[in-house]
Amino acid sequence: MFFIVSFPEQIIRLIFERGAFGPDSTAMTAELLSVYNAGIGSALVVFMLPLWMCSRR
Question: Distance between CA atoms of 53 and 14, rounded to whole angstroms?
Answer without folding.
Answer: 41
